[in-house]
């Protein structure tokens, strides 16, 4: 079947390829234009509902509680908020040099979600009213055919959700408009992908010079 190769990579190599694919896509002329975010947590509403339904000791600080329940969320690969100019995620510009943590944590997202008007978080992470794109990157795995790669990207597996579930969770969390779901992958058949999932946009990493 097209899109099938027996190639072995270590876990670390697979992670590096995954991040490289995202970086190439964000900078390419094929990607949406807007503000980019990496590893955006979803399922915030469900996590907070669980937190509020559980019996929490009164002596625990709110920040400690939020940190505890933030593990209930799942992280999307990337999110683009439609805008007139392109802004890469913090820390992803070549000239950026800093030892400080600049990316928002799941707890930051939860705090903004709970108090959207008065949050003192120094990140623009309130997505209400925005038009967004959700992106999933798939690097070449040890031995996978196109259909398996696509199934994992769209529907997920036992380890992590796929695009469809990410979108469902995100739209529960925020009053936003979903413009498009996007998969960027190596070594897949675009024709096969589009026939299986006509509502999703697919891009081949190799076509972007990766």
Number of domains: 1
Q: Which of globular, elongated, flat, extended, rod-shaped describes the shape?
A: globular
Strand order of the largest sheet: 2-3-4-6-7
Gyration radius from CA atoms, angstroms: 18 Å
Quote the beta fraction: 15-25%
Characterize the largest beta sheet: strand count, sense, and whether it forms a barrel.
5 strands, mixed
List keywords for this structure.
210 residues; single chain; 7 strands; disordered N terminus; five-stranded mixed sheet; alpha/beta
Layout of helices and strands, plus pairs?
Layout: E1 5-6, H1 11-27, E2 34-42, H2 44-53, H3 62-69, E3 74-82, H4 106-114, E4 131-138, E5 143-144, H5 146-155, H6 163-173, E6 177-185, H7 190-196, E7 201-204
Explain this structure to me?
The protein is α/β, with parallel strands linked by helices and 210 residues long. The chain has one domain (5-208). Helix content is 34%, strand content 20%. The chain is built from seven helices and seven strands; from the N terminus they run E-H-E-H-H-E-H-E-E-H-H-E-H-E. It has helices at residues 11-27, 44-53, 62-69, 106-114, 146-155, 163-173, 190-196, and strands at 5-6, 34-42, 74-82, 131-138, 143-144, 177-185, 201-204. The protein has a five-stranded mixed β-sheet with strand order 2-3-4-6-7, with helices on both faces. Strand 6 (177-185), helix 7 (190-196) and strand 7 form a beta-alpha-beta unit. The longest helix has 17 residues, at 11-27. It is globular. The two termini are 23 Å apart. Residues 1-12 and 94-101 have low confidence and may be disordered.
């Amino acid at each position: 079947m097209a899109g099938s190769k027996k190639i072995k990579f270590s876990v670390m190599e697979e992670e590096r390829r995954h991040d490289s694919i995202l970086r190439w896509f964000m900078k390419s002329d094929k990607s949406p234009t807007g503000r980019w975010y990496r590893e955006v947590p979803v399922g915030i509403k469900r996590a907070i509902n669980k937190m509020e339904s559980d019996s929490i000791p009164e002596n625990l600080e709110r920040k400690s509680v939020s940190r505890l329940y933030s593990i209930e969320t799942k992280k999307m690969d990337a999110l683009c908020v439609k805008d007139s100019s392109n802004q890469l995620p913090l820390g992803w510009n070549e000239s950026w040099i800093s030892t400080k943590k600049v990316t928002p944590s799941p707890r930051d997202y939860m705090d903004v979600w709970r108090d959207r008007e008065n949050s003192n978080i120094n990140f623009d992470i309130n997505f209400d009213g925005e038009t967004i794109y959700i992106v999933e990157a798939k690097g070449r795995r040890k031995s996978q055919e196109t259909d398996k790669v696509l199934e994992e990207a769209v529907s997920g597996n036992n380890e992590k959700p796929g695009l469809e579930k990410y979108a469902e969770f995100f739209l529960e969390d925020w009053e936003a408009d979903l413009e498009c779901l996007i998969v960027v992958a190596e070594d897949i058949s675009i024709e096969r992908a589009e026939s299986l999932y006509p509502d999703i946009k697919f891009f081949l990493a190799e076509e972007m010079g990766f």
